[in-house]
Amino acid sequence: MLAHLLARASIDSIVIESRTRAEIEATIRAGVLEQGTVDLMTEAGLGERLAREGQVHHGIRFRFNEGFHRIDLSALTGKSITIYAQHEVLKDLVKARLDAGGPIYFSAQTLSFHDLETDTPALRFLQHGKEAEIACDFIVGCDGASGAARHAIPVGALRVFERDYPFGWFGILVAAPPSAPELIYASHERGFALISTRSPEVQRMYFQCDPEESPDSWSEDRIWSELHGRVSGADFRLVEGKIFQKGVIRMRSFVAEPMHYGRLFLAGDAAHIVPPTGAKGLNLAIADAFLLSRALSTFYSAGRRDLLDSYSEMALARVWRAQHFSWWMTSMLHRFEGVSDFDRRRQHAELEMVAASPTMLAENYVGLPF
Ligand code: PHB
Q: CATH assignment of 2-59+72-162+252-333, given 1.10.10.410, 1.10.132.60, 1.20.1440.20, 3.50.50.60?
């Protein structure tokens, strides 16, 4: 996304990607795009397939106490969300870059970073058994939570904030029609469940599980009985289908500050991770790319460094709002082992409060302005 936005400002870049094109285009991640993400993709000329295949949703549903509580996102905020899988976004971005002749080096391993404190940083990488070096003006680490970029920053120069959760999500892809017209976030005695969608033929569902759970020990029958137990009831029945993908997702909150060191900048999961409950991960990464593209184009067109200097502070303001939102959604909806009856009742009261006063949740869910 950043390479694409930079190219539109006539700034050259090279993308070093550790995996193959086929791998990144097949990796299953979340699928909720905030309004701001959709608008940015559309303005940047990347919105054609998104407009055709993305599903616009105007609300989400909470399920607890055996009832449904609809949050009317559009009535509350004037905005909507679009369901469009993250790997579909990646397909569009890769195609746009390659069509424009923009270099992407796939299957390339970053080896080392050099001279980050100078105006002429460099990066060494290995591709198809050959080592090479790129001399450049800036390096942006968009290489994810365990990527090399953040680790190139001296330990004393970064401050890390993190929190682990004692559960994960068991995620499945199912060949079935949607069970409901909107996403369902369910809080149940047995634990959290989320009913999402990918297309009219493919559904995405999750349920809270032990983070060490092995997907192989879950048969289709066992998965359906767990999901029905948490979501189905007298007023609603989940539609089953063939499960063709399953896996366990770990949950973590993480922020590294500041989001730069000299001429190395961090974007997306390289600097921050959120638990998936608020569907914010991809949207935060896109917001970082937008801020960096603006800061870099101002640097090249007007010789101004101020937006580069304030990038970390501006990005982190949004990141911490999303951290809070994702933590809050997670703690409100999940079952925590060993908590007191008082805490269970309090959790229910909190859901009742949100159902009665949903504006704050709706504003954060559709996304803060870029
Ligand atoms: C998804 O469809 O994968 C999804 C939707 C909403 C979330 C997380 C994941 O909060």
A: 3.50.50.60
Q: What is the tens place of the pLDDT at every residue in 81-106?
A: 999 999 999 999 999 999 999 999 99
Which single residue is written with the structure tokens 């309090």?
346
Give the strand pairing for 122-127 and 130-135. Answer: antiparallel
Quick one: which atom of ligand 1 is closest to the CA of 30? 3
- Who lines ligand 1 at CB under 6 A? 30-32, 183, 194, 196, 204, 276-277, 279
**Could you read off the pLDDT of 175-222 as tens digits, one per residue?**
999 999 999 999 999 999 999 999 999 999 999 999 999 999 999 999
- Supply the residues annotated as catalytic: 57, 185, 276, 280, 365
Burial 296-327 (b: 16+ CB within 10 A, else e): bbbbeeeeeeebbeebbebbbebbeebbebbb
Q: Give the residue, by CA position, lying nearest to ligand 1 atom 4.
A: 30
Atom of ligand 1 minimally distant from the CA of 29? 3
* pTM (2 d.p.): 0.97
Domain boundaries, the chain: 2-59+72-162+252-333, 164-251+338-357
